[in-house]
Structure formats: C-alpha cells, structure tokens
Write a structure and sequence with these properties.
CATH class of one domain: Mainly Beta
Oligomer: single chain
CATH architecture of one domain: Beta Barrel
Helix content: 25-40%
Largest sheet: 7 strands, mixed
C-alpha cells in the first residue's frame, strides 16, 4: 500500500509512471523525494505543478547533505527558487557552506532569490547575441552552433529560465533565416571535422612538447581531459562527491590553505621493488602534468614500507626514469621519513578505541567473509601494551598485527595497519621491526605533505573509505583521492613477477630488454621520452581502464624521431658493387644533409669510393613486375651522390649465389632519370644491429581463453633478429649510447648502452607502421 501511495505521489509531481517506478527502486532517492513532496504539499496546500515537481526531483536526486532538504524545499515550494539555474546555485551553496548556521541573506543573493527576468530582457539579450554572430549565422545558417547564442544570453541573464531563452533563440533565428531548406538538413562533412580535431590535437601536443604554460594552460588541461576537468580547487575538498566531513574539516582546510597558499600539490608514490613500466609513465605524466598545468608542485615519494622487497637499484632506476621523462620533483621524500609520526598516530588510534592488536594469522584474514577478530574488543590499555611489545620485538613475524576498526568497500574488514618484520630497512636500519601497511601509510603521508589531489589507479577505489576514515579518525587534514583507469598495452606483460619469469627462462635478457615495455627497456630501444609523454597525453585520463595497441605508441615515437634523429645510411644484408668507371682517382667526399627536408640543420660527410655496398634486396636478376631498383637494363640512382649506376656484370660463387656486381656510372643529369634511388655505403663501419618485433604472438598473452598454455607459451620466436655484420656509414663512428639516427629507408635506430664507439644499434621503430599490424 505504501508503494502505491508513493507511486501516486511521484506521478503527481509530473514523473511518468515508468520513471516513478524506477525511482521507487532507489531507496535513498525515493525516501528524499517522498519527504520533499510531502513538505511541499503542506506548504502549498494543493497539488504540486509540474515545474515545481521537476525542481523537487532535481533536489532529491542531487542533494548530498540531507540536513538541508527541508530548508531548500521551503524555497522551492514558496517559489523563491523557481528555475533550474537557481536550484543549481542553491545546491552548490549548501555544498560549499556545510557548517551551521546558513547566512540566509547571502544564500538568497547567491541564488538569485527575488530577481525577476522579464521576457523583454530575454529578447534583448538574445538579439544582442544574434547581432554579434550575424555574419557567421548568415553563412552557416542552421549549421551554426545555437548553443553559443543561448550561452551568451545566459551569461548576461544568469537567472533566466533556460527554456525561455531557447524558445526566444529559436524564434529570432527563424525570423532571420526563414524556414530550413534542404541544404540546412545536410550533415557537416566528417573530413573537415576530423581535420579540425587533428589540428587541435597537434596544437595541444606542440604546446606540451614546448613546455608552454600560463596562457597555454588550457591546452595542457585539454590533454589531461576527462576526469581531471572535474577536480576540486585546493581547499574545496568538501565539494568532491563522497568526501566525508567532520566538525573539524573546515578548520583543517583553512589551516591547509594557510600552509600551501592554495597551491595544487600532487605526488607520484612508487614502491621501490621493481622497474617502472609504460603504465607508470601515464601516472608520472598525470601527476606531474596536472601540477604543472595548475602552477603547482609534485613530490616523488618512495613508498618504502616493505623492506623485504626493496633494493637500492630500484630507487635509483625510478628516479632516473622520472628525470628521463623530463620531470623534476619538488622534493624526493620517503614514507620512512615519517615513521616516527606514523607510529605516534597508531598509538593515538588505539587510545581512541579505533585500533587493536590482533593475533589472527594471515591465512585467517583472506577471503571475502573472514570471521571477525576475537580480539576486536580487547581493552585499549591492553592493545597499547601489546603494540609497544610489537615495537620492542617481543612477537615473531605473523604473531601479532595492529588492525583498524572499519569496513572497506570491497568487504574487507579491519585492515592491517602494522605488521612485524625483522628485515633491516635500507634507510632506518634496525630501528624498527614493525612496519606500516599501504592502507595505513598512504593517506597519512598525503596529509603530512598537504597533497591536494591524491591520484590513484582504479584498483585503489576500494581503499577510498579507509583513506577518508583514517584521516578523519585522527582529526588531520584529509586530501581527496581521485581514481583513474590504468594504461595497458596489447602484446605485453608488465607485472614484476612475470617479467622475472621471462628473465629466468632466458626469454629476455633483463628488465631493460628492448622487447619489454618497462621504461628502461623503452629507453634502451631508443624511444624518446617526448614520444612517451605525447602518447600518454593523447590517451588522456578516464575512469575506464585503457588498453592500447603498441603501434599507437610507435606512431608518437616516429613523430618525434622524424624531427630529431639525423639521417645516416646503413646496409643490413650487403651486396658488393664495383664501379668500373669511377669518375675520380680516389674516393670522393659526399655531403649528406642531416635532415633532407631541412638542410639548415647541417650536413655530414661520407666517402664515395669505387666499391660500394647496397642492400641485397635492391638487386634482382629476374625482377618481378613493378620492381624499380637495380636490374638488367634498369639503372638506379645512388642517394646524395648525383650518380646513376647501370649493371654490367653479375659475379656468382660456386653455389650460384650472387657474390658481387660490376656497374658503370654516369651523372644523374646526363641522361634519363632512374625509376628509383637507393641507399648505399662505402668504406663503412661493421656493426651489430638488433631488429625487434613483438615479444608475444597474441594480443592478450595473459588471457587463458586466448592463450590456454600461459604467457610463456605465447613467445614469438622471431621477436629478435641479430644482424652481426651490418654496414653503416662512418658518420656514426663517434656516436654515444642512446644517440638516435634514421637509417635511410630502413627505420629509426638507437646506439645501445653496451656499444663501443657506436658499433651496436637497436632498431627503435620502422619508418612506417607495418600494415600487417592491427
């Protein structure tokens, strides 16, 4: 019966029966709407009109602080708040003023109470907007963005009813343009839109690459699009949905603003127990990029709370990768910097009855519905003594933990705050034998450093309740945790455990094997940091997990290398060519542009002698149709020399394999232009070149439905091909590790760090995307 009464009440507000039934399924919403409608009926003494009903529904569905329901209903029922803009302003006001009492005069001023907007004012505002855009309107007609006109009118008349503005815009536009014609109904060409989007994207990308700030901040924020655009301003944490308020919150936020000056503060908090991968690059880009876009600061904080898994090499490698990506931390900090304070707060939690020492073993705490601890209600004094005993080393590992009294979103009850570990810490030595957990440490370190935006990947969403609970339980400043989706790549594994398996089985050399997607591996392969940053920017920031194709990352890498990698010539599978009529008594010095498209970037010199080497694939004795390179009766040009060579003799070995060629040459301008120009080397360096392909054969090597035998069974046997005697022109003789080149017609290559005098190269990417890759 109650449900039928509520259904009748809701339809009386103007809701359709279907909408009313859906509302009844939401217990919280239906309860608030029922209370609002009942109060409004008592005030009005009659049925509720549809406009008022719509506002009441909007109030019930959007109001977070239920204490303000009666206050706001009274304004709606009395028609003091009668438009959607007023309701939005009222909801924003009560959210930003959570403490009692509300200043009624200030509230009414901020919500436009008593302000009347006449039809004449609306007509004038719309007419002014149309006159401003009249030339463009006459050209684009009904393809013009009418929302722009409504927005400008609304900016002038903040409290005007949106429907009235839209109706006025429709009427005046019709009067100006007349009825729609057939051409007005045609859609805008998609190509133009695509080009415009590409232009916008490139403009934003260029601004990031150039490190522009100030007026360019908007473009950087566009690259951090998605969730980042919803973020709160420093000190306005309480405006974030789900943020938990206490009587101390506003005072703590005031102190926070006094300390930070309203500055945006983020942090990148890696665990120093492994090497960073491409997913971390997104986290680094987001944390440092968001701070930079808002003239803020970003900390690099090592979460060094598990001494068993931490190694000095990981600290160094992580810092190096952050610097390599182009970011400088405001300060490098460690969770261990705050061990004394964290311990003192743990004692305070016990004193407040919010934590207790427990003796359940780890296996007893696993699963979705573990039994409550029998020690949950032990006396506070007893837990204090036992926690002190834990600190003094009187319990063995696993024999005692400190647990917090709360239930998390994922059903986990009473997460562990401290556990016993007798492993010396790399920074604090043997001072501690108890160490805090992530659940305990993370939010409190954020609080100590006055972080404004604690940016975490989606899997930490289940810890948000403990984040807010712990800060509020200790009455300390509580930052806001924001979650975003992880970045993954197809054809890759990035977990530490699985990479260790790959190394142990010999599938890869180490963490920096160029076939992996760790950042050290990508650097070794020759990926420029700008390319990785641009890729992260293009991916953007969303709540959903993102899994991208590797060729999209490679495309960003090519964009950078095309502008930064000087050209050189190399031959991977060589064929000796003797020029029988070489035009000089000794070798010639050829000037080759470092960047053929822009010769202002300089030249390098290579020798051109009677003996040159070309790619074996650039010659065919019996060419197939369409083959344009060297063949009988088909001369070919040698790049940068100004000479054309023509085949005179093919020299074969005993097995019938072609061993060398003899050719004659002529000036390129002394006859018909050849069909093709090929690269070559003369008096070259002999180098080792490593050619990399995907490490795995399937998109999702960890998916048992796609790869039933496990990821180790999915290895691509052709993921590495080593050319031990590649020939490279002598311009690379002085190249240093990580120097990058474009080997003409072959791809982009980088000097391996193990190289001696530029004798070892890794192929970074091919010149063009492989059409076989999807």
């Amino acid at each position: 019966m109650a449900a039928l009464d509520s259904l009748s009440l809701f339809t009386g507000l103007g809701l359709s029966e279907q909408k009313a039934r859906e509302t009844l399924k939401n217990q919280t919403l239906s309860s608030q709407l029922r209370e609002a409608a009942t109060q409004a009926q008592q005030t009005l003494g009659s049925t509720i009109d549809k406009a008022t009903g719509t506002l009441l529904y909007g109030l019930a569905s959007r109001l977070r602080d239920t204490r303000r329901l009666s206050f706001l209903v009274s304004y709606i029922a009395s028609k003091k708040i009668h438009t959607e803009p007023q309701l939005s302003a009222a909801l924003e006001y009560v959210r930003s003023h959570p403490l009692d009492p509300i200043d009624t005069a200030d509230f009414e001023q901020e919500c436009g109470v008593g302000v009347t907007v006449t039809p004449e004012q609306i007509e004038e505002a719309v007419e002014a907007a149309i006159n401003k855009h009249r030339p463009q309107l006459l050209v684009e007609r009904y393809r013009f963005n009418m929302g722009l006109l409504m927005g400008e009118a609304r900016a002038v008349l903040k409290w005007a009813d949106g429907k009235m503005i839209k109706n006025e815009v429709d009427m005046q536009v019709l009067h100006l343009l007349g009825p729609k014609m057939e051409a007005d109904l045609e859609k805008k060409p998609k190509v133009a839109k695509a080009r415009l989007e590409e232009t916008d994207r490139r403009t934003a990308k260029d601004m990031i690459e150039n490190g522009e700030t100030a007026d360019q901040t908007l473009s950087l924020m566009e690259q951090l699009r998605g969730e980042a655009l919803k973020f709160h301003k420093p000190g306005e944490n309480y405006k974030t949905p789900g943020y938990v308020m206490t009587p101390h919150t506003m005072n703590l936020l005031k102190q926070h603003l006094e300390i930070t000056g309203g500055q945006v503060r983020t942090r990148f908090p890696p665990e120093p127990n492994g090497i960073l991968h491409i997913g971390h690059a997104k986290a680094i880009s987001f944390n440092f990029g968001y701070a930079k876009a808002n003239n803020g600061i970003c900390f690099l904080r090592f979460d060094d709370t598990n001494p068993e898994k931490e190694e000095a090499k990981f600290f160094t490698a992580i810092y190096d990768m952050v610097a390599w990506l182009g970011y400088t931390p405001y300060r490098v900090t460690y969770a261990s910097d705050y061990f004394d304070q964290l311990y003192a707060w743990a004692v305070e939690l016990i004193r407040r009855g919010l934590a207790y020492v427990c003796h359940q073993r780890g296996e007893d705490l696993k699963g979705h519905n573990p039994l409550p601890s029998p020690w949950r209600d032990r006396p506070m004094e007893e837990s204090l003594l036992l926690f002190e005993a834990m600190r003094k080393g009187k319990f063995s590992e696993g024999e005692a933990t400190l647990r917090m009294k709360l239930l998390m979103e994922d059903g986990k009850m009473d997460p562990v705050a401290y556990r016993v570990k007798y492993t010396p810490h790399h920074r604090t030595g043997d001072k501690w034998c108890i160490y805090p957990t992530y659940d305990y440490t993370h939010c409190l370190c954020d609080s100590i450093e006055h972080i404004t935006h604690s940016l975490c990947t989606k899997e930490f969403q289940a810890r948000r309740s403990s984040y807010f609970w712990l800060c509020n339980a200790l009455d300390v400043y509580c930052p806001v945790q924001w979650e975003y989706g992880r970045l993954n790549l197809h054809y890759a594994v990035v977990s530490k455990r699985k990479i260790l398996q790959l190394v142990a089985t010999g599938a890869v050399r180490d963490w920096d094997d160029p076939r992996l997607f760790t950042l050290t591996a990508l650097r070794r392969r020759g990926f420029p940091p700008e390319g990785i940053n641009n890729f992260c920017a293009r991916v953007g920031v969303t709540v959903a997990q993102t899994t991208m194709e590797p060729h999209l990352l490679e495309a960003c890498v090519r964009d950078v290398l095309n502008d930064t990698a000087p050209r050189a010539m190399a031959v991977l599978e060589s064929l000796r060519v003797t020029i029988t009529n070489f035009p000089a008594a000794k070798s010639l010095d050829i000037q080759v542009p470092n960047f053929p498209a822009d010769e202002t970037k300089g030249f390098h010199q290579v020798p051109f002698a009677p003996i040159v080497f070309i790619e074996r694939t650039d010659f065919k004795e019996e060419p197939e149709p369409g083959f344009k390179r060297l063949a009988w009766g088909q001369p070919v040009g040698l790049r940068h020399t100004g000479y054309v060579i023509e085949l005179q003799r093919v020299i074969k070995g005993p097995s019938g394999c072609v061993e060398s060629l003899e050719v004659t040459c002529r000036r390129a301008d002394a006859g018909e232009k050849p069909k093709a120009f090929i690269h070559w080397v003369s008096q070259p360096l002999t180098c080792e070149v490593r050619l990399y392909e995907r490490l795995f054969q399937h998109k999702n090597p960890e998916d048992p439905t796609e790869v039933p035998g496990g990821f180790l069974s999915d290895l691509n046997p052709a993921s590495l091909r080593v050319v031990e005697a590649a020939l490279v022109d002598c311009s690379v003789a002085l190249a240093k590790p990580f120097n990058k080149f474009q080997f003409e017609r072959l791809g982009y290559f980088s000097v391996d760090p193990d190289s001696h005098q530029g004798k070892l190269f890794n192929r970074t990417v091919t010149l063009k995307e492989d059409p076989g890759k999807v």
